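Entry 14. Two folds queued back to back today. First construct below, sequence then structure tokens.
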Amino acid sequence: MPKVASAHGVGTREQQSYGTLGATTYTVYSYAEVQRVVAALESGEVVLDPFWRSDTEEGARGARRDALTTCGCVVLMIAVVIAIALLSS
């Protein structure tokens, strides 16, 4: 989302929220500028990069790559936990 927003001139700012587990940072988008980009998308003035869309082959390929990367990270974390358990016993 931040890439799409910045590519189309939507202003953003970072805000922090504080809780018992620490600070959480999140992005706030300018409502008026988002509405302007939505209207431009609906009228066809603005076209999104195919990599940013989930209904294109490029976007689907990126989603699959992200899913495989996530699975790989999970498998690696499990392997590390097993290795630590085996080495500590």
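Second construct, same run, same settings:
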Amino acid sequence: MEWANFLRTAAVIFLLCVTCLLVKELLNFLRSHVYFQPWDIPKPKCNQILFFISTFWSLYKQRRPESPYMCLLLQGLYGVSIAERNQRIGVLTLGIKPAVFFGKAETVEVVLSSSTLIEKSTEYKFMYPWLGTGLFTSPAVKWRHRRKLLTPTFHFTILEDFIPVFQEQSSVLVSKLQDLTKEPWVDIVPLLTSCTLDIICQTAMGVSINAQKGENHEYVKAIRSHLLSDGTMIGGIFAMVIEFYLDRTVIAQLL
């Protein structure tokens, strides 16, 4: 009897701890997002949550086993861009997080040329275990300091030395696409990512990994597993599930 009471007490304590952790994560999430803050940016004249749910449900009904989910996502984004094509700037709620979109190139130019709008969004955090806080992922203060160090050493004439690499890897990509001309449809993402990976590794690091030719496929597979993992963007709660340990294995392969 005493043992049963001990187990019940332990179970209650465990559930309370889990609840506290979930509440903590929820509060951190709400503090780091701006969904409930007022916006001066134009947005679609409809309920944002209902709009997201209806769009998601429509895409879900159109899913096919032979069609990658990314195609449906791009289809949804294209539909939004068509519906809001007359807006210079707008905001759309993706789930419970707002996302700003641009409909005119002039608006994009203002944002990209800004010296203050350089803080990375939370979506970059899932790359920290793999890439750390380098130039691509670093916060604004760190990025600005490193950019000042690198800018004097870089010039576009450097890219001229890489043109033979671009041509070589592009030829491999074209030959692979030619072999797929009779297919009803082609998922071009793996082909382009392998080509890009070959170019980046050969130009920036001086290493040929031949990803397009099927070599070093473990590295390529590890990158895809990390980027498409269901838990890569969840954060603290993610560390409590078994997928965390699986992803640590993937990160070890990448490093």
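Quick look at the second one. The beta strands are 89-94, 97-102. The chain is about 55% helix and 5% strand.
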